[in-house]
Design goal:
This protein is mainly alpha-helical. It is built from 17 helices and four strands. It has a domain at about 110-285.
Length: about 400
């Protein structure tokens, strides 16, 4: 029997020694050094400081993941920090380039709108039917071009499935962070029927986008417009859009996640989340439950932020396809009855730590790759604010 973990630290036999941990971290140290530096160390002092600080922070998080046996606790620190850094970096860059967070119609016509992965479901069907990309952005040439985001989406889906939502999505860290504001949930029960809502949202935005040949979700329903960019407010229509964006952000990303300790926007409203759930079917990693070890404490059900675990799934020894592979249920299970698993291999909880480490390498590389640029840019902007009084 495995002793209950009372301090959030893995039992002694699952903790790695310092030397073993360093050896396990060595590949990540090399990969992140190459990735963050793009093969060449920066020479400018501020950039070099930002690089070193980011490199140390990212690898310290990975070291703690390996040494403690905990996943979500440390993933969340980097993931939420990444989300904050992304917003800071993105907004200041927009203001530097345009003088405002808003985007004008002329900017859209010129294809200057950054493409994000949430738009993907709205582009596939209209593109198949009309051979037209409906999003007002560029196809090639930038990091946020349409082709670049499709490559990122396909690669992350093959590597992580819906784990993309916990390890790569530059929006997911926001509702993840707000869901951790309170130690205990103020609203402890959410009707399971709400889990069908994102399917309805997906159907709505795909049909509306195909009919209007406009990215419907972006135009009317995206809460993240509040903290990225939004249409220039110059009419009644754009004013209504702005009110909707702010209201949805406050409700779905801030308030309800804080009260329920669930990732409400990602789990119950994001159309891309539904698509990512289906990619769990083709991904090599999953999360499994050993019913023989389970004592039916239901703690995994309580802590799961994506409504992916129920009494029925525990009995079946698995999670729902909505699982984001965040590792929160695994960290919470005192009996280690729930664990990362590689499809096609024996369901042996004794190998849980091996499975976890094999999952962590691709997952953390995606997180480090996505977070690295935003973290470095945010650090430089904060230094600029301290030294010059302006981030721009």
């Amino acid at each position: 029997m495995i002793a209950k973990d009372t301090k959030g630290i893995a039992p002694p036999h699952q903790q790695a020694g310092i030397l073993k941990t360093l050896l396990l971290c060595l590949p990540m140290l090399m990969v992140t050094a190459l990735m963050l530096s793009a093969g060449k160390l920066p020479t400018e002092p501020v950039r070099l400081f930002a690089f070193v600080l980011t490199f140390v922070f990212i690898n310290a998080v990975f070291f703690m993941m390996i040494s403690t046996g905990q996943t979500d606790r440390w993933r969340a620190i980097l993931f939420v920090t990444y989300a904050a850094a992304f917003v800071l970096s993105f907004i200041t860059n927009l203001i530097a380039e345009r003088g405002s967070m808003s985007i004008s119609e002329s900017n859209m016509i010129e294809g200057l709108t950054p493409f994000c992965h949430i738009v993907i479901p709205m582009t596939i069907i209209p593109a198949a039917l009309t051979k037209t990309i409906i999003f007002p952005g560029t196809i090639f040439g930038t990091k946020t071009a349409i082709a670049s985001m499709f490559v990122l989406w396909i690669g992350s889906s093959l590597a992580l499935g819906r784990g993309f939502c916990s390890w790569a999505c530059f929006f997911g860290g926001m509702d993840d962070g707000f869901s951790r504001l309170f130690k205990k949930a103020r609203i402890r029960s959410v009707d399971s029927r709400w889990t069908y809502l994102p399917y309805a949202v997906l159907l709505l935005v795909v049909l509306a986008s195909a009919i209007t040949l406009d990215p419907f979700y972006c135009e009317w329903l995206c809460p993240y417009k509040t903290v990225t960019e939004y249409p220039e407010i110059n009419s009644v229509k754009t004013a209504i859009q702005a009110v909707i964006f702010v209201s949805l952000f406050l409700a779905l990303v801030v308030i309800i996640p804080a009260l329920t300790k669930k990732r409400i926007q990602c789990s119950l409203f994001c159309p891309m989340g539904v698509v990512q759930s289906w990619t769990n079917k083709i991904n090599v990693f999953d999360v499994r439950v050993d019913p023989a070890r389970c004592i039916n404490c239901k703690k995994c059900i309580a802590v799961c932020p994506s409504f992916a675990i129920s009494e029925e799934t525990i009995t079946a020894g698995k999670t729902k396809i909505t699982c984001m592979k965040c590792g929160k249920c695994i960290d919470a299970c005192a009996k280690k009855a729930i664990f990362f698993h590689i499809k096609g291999t024996p369901l042996n909880a004794e190998n849980a730590e091996v499975y976890r480490r094999l999952f962590l390498y691709p997952a953390f590389i995606f997180l480090a790759t996505m977070a690295g640029g935003s973290l470095q840019d945010a650090i430089m902007k904060i230094i600029n604010l301290i030294t010059t009084g302006s981030m721009i």
